[in-house]
Amino acid sequence: MSRPRLPPLGAxxxxxxAARLASFKRAADELSVTPTAISHQIRLLEEQLGVRxxxxxxxxVALTAEAALLYPVLRDGFDAFAEAVAAIAAxxxxxxxxxxxxxxxxxxxxxxxxxxFRAAQPQLDLRLHASDDPVDLAAxxxxxxxxYGRGPYPGLIAERLIENRFAPVCxxxxxxxxxxxxxxxALLHSEWRHPTADTPTWRNWCALAGVDGLEVxxxxxxxxxxxxxxxxxxxxxxxxxxxxxxxxxxxxxTLVQPFAPELALDGYPHWLxxxxxxxxxxxxxxxxxxxxxxxxx
Length: 297
Description:
Layout: H1 9-21, H2 24-31, H3 35-49, E1 54-57, E2 60-63, H4 65-93, E3 95-101, H5 103-110, H6 114-120, E4 124-130, E5 144-148, E6 156-169, E7 187-190, H7 202-209, E8 220-222, H8 225-233, E9 238-242, H9 247-252, E10 263-275, H10 281-296
Parallel strand pairs: 3-4, 3-5, 7-8, 7-9
Antiparallel strand pairs: 1-2, 5-10, 6-9, 6-10
């Protein structure tokens, strides 16, 4: 079905302003035209509709019965136009940037903290890109990334963000008190993509702790560290985990660190990396926020 032909938008806008302000002069001032122009637009609209829209009175105009039917529809319509235009303008004013990080770091460290970023940067939309594969920052896949390892990272600025220490953690219900209690529970393992002699494994931890006779390769294995964390929270065993990633769980009491020692991997911090070109304001804001969060943690 074809839509009926509507009067010119200028005439409708002139009518809406005159009806709302009850004055051709005030409508002219609002629309930055002359009162004569308003009168001309109203006359064109009356001719097209075949009805009178205003009763001219001293210093003001009053709506006719026909105009009283038309005005609320136009008023609501122009209000809706104004809201839509304002929303579009606000979206254009918003800025966005993408931060890439591993699946476990995104889930356990970034996601619980994004509310504070929104509070600190309300006009900046943060997009989290979770992947265990390093992204190509030069290609624009992300603006910055959290990398875990020794480095170096050619072509990127790298800032040490969080130092890593690993220790046994478990659900407090397991009741562990000493390293020998590990023999009574399953060991939870996070598989590393590129293990080295320094990789935080149960074998390395037992060597440091002086624990003998533990089946260090037995237990449950996970390719995603966040799954190992969830298994530990659920009480399925004891996991050797980054204390930085489970800091919130330790603080909440859903996990406990029953005993020492801790594996300190000085060469494997979490790094904030971004391209060597001068960072734009959004990246600088993200960097400052990450630094503050890391310091608080």
